[in-house]
C-alpha cells in the first residue's frame, strides 16, 4: 500500500516536472521565435538600409559631378577674369601672350596651349605662345602648320572655332590631336581688326575630357586676346605718331632757338650800333649847338634877322636831335643791361602826385581836368624814382598832348594780383586797333592829325616800356578811337 | 631642447628665384644668428630638379634637406598649385636627429627597402632615445604599405612615424623625393627626431560608413578578391548601378569619394582604402593592404565632415602634445599631410580646410603641408599599440612644441 502511494506520488511529481518542462519549453520556443523574427526584421531593415545607401551613393555621385562642373566653370570664369585684367593692361603684342600662364589653363581645365599669328610677308605662322610643349614639339607643330597652311588659313578666314567635341565624328579631330599632342582641345581664331591674325589652341590629356561651355570660354579668351592686340597695335601706332611729332617739335624748337639766337645777336648789334652812333653823333651835335649858340648870341658880330631866325631853327632842331640821341642811348643801355635800376621802396602815390604837379600847368593851359583816384592805403613799390618819374612824365605828357581842351585825365592807382597798378586814363582821341599792337615799338608814331602837327621822336613809349620791364613790371594800353586811351603799368609791391 | 622654425613660400616662375625667395623668407623668421640645420621642402613638380636643392645648400652651407613633390602646397598663406614652400628648422645641440634615404624600392621590393631604410635611420641615431619619424616616399610605388612594414621590422612596430606619399600634377605618372642634393623617383627619405622632442599627432578623415557591414572573404596584400563571397567589384556595381566598364571610367571619382572602410576594434574611425584599379577578375586593387576576414563598409564623405575632421585632427594633436609638454605647450610648427582625395572633394573650398586647421592650431604658428597620394601614421587604440598604417583620405597634423 505504502509502495503504491509512493509510486503515485512519484508519478504526480514526474507529471508536475514534465508539465513545468513543457511550459518552460514552450516559453523558450516562444522567445526563440520572437528573436528569430527580430533577426529577420533586423536583416530586412539592414537590407532596406543598404538599398537606401545605394540611393544615397547614386544621388551623391550625381551631386558631386554637378558640383565639380560648377566648380570648374566658376574657376574657369575667375581665371578668365584674371587673364582679362592682365591682358587688358598690356600694350605690347608679345607681352599679351606672356600673360597667359599654366595656372590659368589649369583653372580652365586644360594643360597645354599654343598660339600662332600668320605673317603674310614671310608666308608662315609665327609662334607667340607655347605652354606645356617642348621646343621640338613646337617645331613639329610649325612643320605641320606649313603643310596644312590652307586649312588653318581657312579656319581663320571663316572665324570658326573647332573642338574635339565638334570634330568628334570627323577625321580632322584625330589628325589635330596628333599634331598638337592633345586628346581633347579647342582651337579658336584670333581676329584683331588690323594686322596679323591667327589662332589659339588649348588642349588636355585623355583624363581631362571637354565639358559643355569649354568652347565658349576659349572663344572669350581668343576675343580678349584679339582686342588686346588691337589696343597694342593702336597704342604702337599712336606712340609712333607721338614720337614723330615730338621729334618734329624738337627740330622746330631747335630751329627757332637758332633763329632766336640770331635775332639776339642782330638785336645786340643794333643796340651796339645805336649806342656807338649816338655817342658819335653827340660830339658833333654839341659842337653844332655850341657854335649856333655863339652865333645867336651875336658874339661874333651882329646878324641879319633872317640869319638869326635860321640859326634859332638850327638850335631848336639840334635840341630835338640831342633829346632823340639821349633817348636812344637810354634805350640801348637798358636793353644791354647797362643801366642799373636803383630799386628802393617808393611811395607811388607821393611820386605820382609830384609828377601830376609838374604836369598840372600844361593841363591848366588846355583846361584839362586832372584827377587822382587812390585807395587810402597802398603798399610801397620797389622802384628807381627818377626812372618811374620819366615813365609818368612821358605817359601824362602824351595824355595831355592827345586830349582836347576841357578833357579829363585820371591817374588811378590800385593793388591787383600782388602788384601795384597805375592807370593813366584820358578822354583823348584814342587810337586804332592796329596802333595798339605797335605803340611801344621804337620810332612808331600813330598816324593822326595831332602827330602830323606836333613833333616827336617815336622813342618815348619804347623807353617807358623798357624802364617798366627793367622793374619786372608790365605795360599795356587799351584804347577806343575817339573816346580815349588808358595806359596801365604794374610794379612789384613790397610785402 | 629647443627648436626654431621659419616658413617661406614663393610662386615665382623662375625656380631659382622661387626657392631663394622662399628660403630667405623662412630664414628671416629666425631669431638672431641661429642657422638652420634641417630644411623641409615641398614643391609642385615643375620645381623638382637639383637646382632647387643646390640653391638651399649654397645658401645655408651644411644643411639636411628633405621633402617631396606635390600637386599643391599649403601653408599659412593658403593653398598654392605652382609653388615651393620651405620650412627651416634650427635644432639645439641636445635635440638628436638623423636623416636617411633609400632608392630603387621596386627592385629591392618595398618590404626589403623598408628594412634597409629603417636600418639606415637607426644607424645615424646611435644610442639616443628616438621619439618620432617623419618620412616622404614615392607616391606611385606598389604595395606602399610594405615599406612601412619593412621599417617596423627595424624601428619597432609601435614607433611613431608620420609620412606622406609624394604626388605629381595628378597625372599619376612620376613623383619625386628630395633628399640633400638628390631628386629621385622610386625612393624615400626620412628624419628621426630624438632626445625628448615634444610632439602631438592627430589623424582624421571624416568619412562615414554607409550601407550594411560586409566581409572581405578573399584577399591578398592590397588586392581584395571577394566581398561576401562574390567578386569584390560587384559590390560597387551594385551600389552605383553600373557595370565594370563604367566603373573603370569613373574610378578616379569613385575610388576617392567612396573608398572601402575597414572596421578596427577600438578605433574611432574606419581605416580607409582607396581603389586604384579593378582587376579583370572583378577584384579591387587598393592603395594599401587589406586583411582577409576584415569587416568593411562603403564610406562616404562630405565637405562638412572634412572640415570637422580637420579640426578634430588638430585638437587630437594638441591634446597629445599637452600630455607630453604640459597644459599650455608652445607650438613651434605644424606639419600637415592632406590627402588629395580631400582636395578633390573640397574643390574650391580647399582653402577653407586650411583655414580651419590654422584656426584650430592658433595664431603665429608656421603651418606647412602638402597634398599626398597617401598618408602614413599610427593607429590610436590600445589594440593596435600605436602601429603605423598607410591611410587614405586623412588629414594628418603633426605639432612639434615645447
User: Segments of chain B where pLDDT lies below 50 for 5+ residues?
Assistant: none
Whole-number average pLDDT of chain A?
88
Q: Order of strands in the sheet with the most strands of chain A?
A: 2-1-5-4-3
**Strand residue content of chain A:** 15-25%
| Helix/strand order of chain A | HHHEEHHEHEEHHEHEEHEEHHHEE
Shape of chain A: elongated
Briefly note the structural class of the backbone of chain A: alpha+beta
- How many distinct domains of chain B? 2
Give me the count of strands of chain B. Answer: 26
Q: Hey, roughly how much beta strand do the residues of chain B contain?
A: 35-45%
* Helix proportion range of chain B: 25-40%
Number of distinct helices of chain B: 11
For this entry, what is the oligomeric state of its chains?
heterodimer
Which class do the helix and strand fractions of chain B yield?
Answer: alpha+beta
Name the helicity range of chain A: 55-70%
Average per-residue pLDDT of chain B, rounded, comes to 92
Amino acid at each position: 500500500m505504502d509502495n503504491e502511494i509512493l509510486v503515485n506520488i512519484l508519478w504526480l511529481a514526474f507529471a508536475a516536472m514534465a508539465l513545468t518542462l513543457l511550459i518552460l519549453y514552450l516559453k523558450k520556443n516562444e522567445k526563440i521565435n520572437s528573436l528569430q523574427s527580430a533577426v529577420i526584421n533586423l536583416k530586412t531593415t539592414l537590407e532596406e538600409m543598404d538599398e537606401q545607401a545605394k540611393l544615397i551613393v547614386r544621388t551623391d555621385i550625381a551631386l558631386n559631378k554637378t558640383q565639380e562642373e560648377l566648380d570648374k566653370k566658376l574657376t574657369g570664369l575667375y581665371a578668365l577674369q584674371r587673364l582679362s585684367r592682365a591682358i587688358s593692361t598690356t600694350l605690347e603684342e608679345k607681352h599679351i601672350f606672356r600673360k597667359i600662364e599654366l595656372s590659368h589653363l589649369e583653372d580652365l581645365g586644360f594643360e597645354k596651349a599654343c598660339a600662332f599669328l600668320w605673317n603674310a610677308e614671310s608666308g608662315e605662322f609665327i609662334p607667340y605662345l607655347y605652354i606645356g610643349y617642348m621646343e621640338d614639339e613646337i617645331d613639329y607643330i610649325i612643320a605641320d602648320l606649313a603643310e596644312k597652311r590652307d586649312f588653318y588659313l581657312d579656319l581663320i578666314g571663316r572665324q570658326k572655332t573647332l573642338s574635339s567635341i565638334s570634330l568628334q565624328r570627323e577625321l580632322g579631330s584625330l589628325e589635330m590631336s596628333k599634331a598638337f599632342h592633345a586628346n581633347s582641345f579647342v582651337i579658336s581664331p584670333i581676329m584683331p581688326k588690323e594686322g596679323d591674325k591667327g589662332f589659339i589652341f588649348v588642349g588636355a590629356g585623355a583624363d581631362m575630357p571637354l565639358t559643355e561651355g569649354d568652347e565658349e570660354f576659349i572663344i572669350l579668351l581668343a576675343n580678349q586676346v584679339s582686342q588686346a592686340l588691337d589696343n597694342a597695335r593702336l597704342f604702337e601706332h599712336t606712340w609712333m605718331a607721338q614720337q614723330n611729332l615730338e621729334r618734329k617739335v624738337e627740330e622746330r624748337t631747335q630751329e627757332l632757338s637758332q633763329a632766336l639766337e640770331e635775332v639776339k645777336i642782330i638785336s645786340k648789334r643794333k643796340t651796339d650800333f645805336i649806342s656807338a652812333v649816338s655817342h658819335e653823333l653827340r660830339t658833333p651835335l654839341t659842337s653844332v649847338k655850341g657854335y649856333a649858340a655863339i652865333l645867336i648870341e651875336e658874339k661874333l658880330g651882329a646878324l641879319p634877322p633872317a640869319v638869326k631866325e635860321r640859326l634859332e631853327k638850327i638850335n631848336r632842331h639840334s635840341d630835338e636831335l640831342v633829346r632823340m640821341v639821349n633817348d636812344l642811348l637810354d634805350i640801348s643801355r637798358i636793353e644791354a643791361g647797362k643801366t642799373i635800376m636803383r630799386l628802393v621802396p617808393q611811395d607811388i602815390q607821393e611820386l605820382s602826385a609830384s609828377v601830376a604837379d609838374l604836369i598840372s600847368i600844361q593841363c591848366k593851359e588846355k583846361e584839362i581836368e586832372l584827377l587822382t583816384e587812390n585807395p587810402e592805403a597802398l603798399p610801397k613799390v620797389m622802384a628807381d624814382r627818377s626812372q618811374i618819374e620819366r615813365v609818368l612824365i612821358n605817359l601824362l605828357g602824351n595824355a595831355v598832348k592827345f586830349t582836347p581842351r576841357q578833357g579829363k585825365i585820371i591817374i588811378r592807382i590800385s593793388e591787383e594780383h600782388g602788384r601795384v597798378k597805375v592807370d593813366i586814363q584820358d578822354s583823348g582821341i584814342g587810337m586804332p586797333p592796329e596802333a595798339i599792337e605797335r605803340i611801344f615799338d621804337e620810332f612808331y608814331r600813330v598816324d593822326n592829325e595831332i602827330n602830323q602837327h606836333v613833333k616827336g621822336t617815336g622813342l618815348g613809349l619804347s623807353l617807358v616800356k623798357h624802364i617798366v620791364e627793367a622793374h619786372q613790371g608790365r605795360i599795356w594800353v587799351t584804347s577806343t578811337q575817339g573816346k580815349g586811351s588808358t595806359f596801365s603799368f604794374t610794379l612789384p609791391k613790397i610785402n | 631642447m629647443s627648436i626654431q622654425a621659419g616658413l617661406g613660400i614663393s610662386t615665382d616662375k623662375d625656380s631659382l628665384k622661387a626657392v631663394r625667395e622662399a628660403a630667405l623668407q623662412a630664414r628671416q623668421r629666425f631669431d638672431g644668428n641661429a642657422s638652420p640645420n634641417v630644411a623641409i621642402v615641398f614643391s609642385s613638380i615643375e620645381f623638382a630638379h637639383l637646382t632647387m636643392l643646390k640653391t638651399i645648400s649654397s645658401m645655408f652651407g651644411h644643411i639636411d634637406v628633405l621633402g617631396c613633390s606635390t600637386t599643391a602646397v599649403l601653408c599659412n598663406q593658403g593653398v598654392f598649385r605652382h609653388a615651393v614652400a620651405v620650412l627651416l628648422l634650427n635644432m639645439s645641440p641636445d635635440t638628436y636627429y638623423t636623416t636617411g634615404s633609400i632608392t630603387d624600392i621596386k627592385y629591392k621590393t618595398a618590404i626589403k627597402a623598408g628594412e634597409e631604410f629603417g636600418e639606415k635611420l637607426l644607424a645615424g641615431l646611435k644610442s639616443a632615445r628616438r621619439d618620432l619619424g617623419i618620412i616622404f616616399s614615392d607616391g606611385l610605388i606598389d604595395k606602399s604599405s610594405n615599406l612601412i612594414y619593412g621599417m617596423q621590422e627595424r624601428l619597432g612596430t609601435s614607433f611613431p612615424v608620420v609620412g606622406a606619399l609624394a604626388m605629381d600634377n595628378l597625372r599619376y605618372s612620376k613623383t619625386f623625393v628630395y633628399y640633400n642634393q638628390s631628386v629621385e623617383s622610386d625612393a624615400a627619405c626620412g628624419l628621426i627626431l630624438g632626445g625628448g622632442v615634444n610632439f602631438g599627432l592627430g589623424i582624421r578623415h571624416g568619412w562615414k560608413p554607409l550601407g550594411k557591414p560586409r566581409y572581405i572573404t578573399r584577399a591578398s596584400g592590397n588586392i581584395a578578391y571577394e566581398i561576401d563571397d562574390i567578386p569584390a567589384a560587384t559590390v560597387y556595381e551594385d551600389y552605383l548601378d553600373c557595370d565594370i566598364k563604367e566603373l573603370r571610367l569613373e574610378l578616379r571619382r569613385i575610388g576617392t569619394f567612396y573608398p572601402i572602410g575597414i572596421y578596427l576594434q577600438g578605433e574611432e574611425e574606419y581605416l580607409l582604402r582607396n581603389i586604384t584599379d579593378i582587376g579583370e577578375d572583378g577584384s579591387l586593387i587598393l592603395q594599401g593592404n587589406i586583411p582577409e576576414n576584415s569587416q568593411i563598409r562603403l564610406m562616404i564623405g562630405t565637405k562638412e565632415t572634412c572640415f570637422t575632421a580637420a579640426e578634430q585632427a588638430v585638437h587630437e594633436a594638441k591634446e597629445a602634445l599637452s600630455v607630453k609638454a604640459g597644459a599650455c605647450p608652445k607650438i613651434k610648427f605644424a606639419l600637415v599631410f592632406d590627402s588629395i582625395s580631400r582636395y578633390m572633394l573640397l574643390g574650391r573650398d580647399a582653402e577653407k580646410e586650411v583655414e580651419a586647421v590654422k584656426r584650430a592650431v592658433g595664431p603665429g604658428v608656421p603651418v606647412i603641408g602638402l597634398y599626398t597620394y597617401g598618408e602614413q601614421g599610427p593607429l590610436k587604440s590600445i589594440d593596435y599599440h600605436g602601429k603605423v598604417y598607410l591611410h587614405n583620405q586623412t588629414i594628418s597634423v603633426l605639432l612639434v612644441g615645447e
